Structure prediction request, 161 residues.
Amino acid sequence: MLTAVLLEKKILLISSKKSLITQVTDGLLGLLHPYQWLHILIPMLPVNLRAYLDAPVPFIIGLEDHDLEQLDLSHMHDVMQVYLDSNEIICVDSLPGLPEKPKKTLLTRLKALDSHPHRSLEHIEHIDNAFDGMLFEDQFYEDFDTFNVRDAFFEFHLTFL
Prediction:
């Protein structure tokens, strides 16, 4: 998903929890630092505004899963559909992988920051799998080091400048 955001693709975030959609949206935007998302951004799309899904420009749009019944996504071949509740990503268009050296450095830094033995980051082969351990409203890690996570991604982005 990070690759899709960096390449300014169309991304549809789908979940049964509004709070999860907005957290992931905020997280994606935060990971872009020092860049900014300058395209359509609708954290929660009301169904009556579904015409935005046909926009010819990149977007990040959040949608509750019960609204899917009213929409036909089969014609949306250029949209990455991210099902947050099941950690499933449907992307018809193939995306290039992230460069190996910067990706390896980023994963190493993120693994070093993982201080929770009950949750392992060893299974992460793709950066997109980082959402496996997503925190929900009733969970909070007081010792979570947001500064160093942001710094790891900032360093990652600097390798492209």
In short: The beta strands are 10-15, 40-42, 59-64, 79-83, 88-90. The first helix runs from residue 2 to 6. The chain has a mean pLDDT of 80.
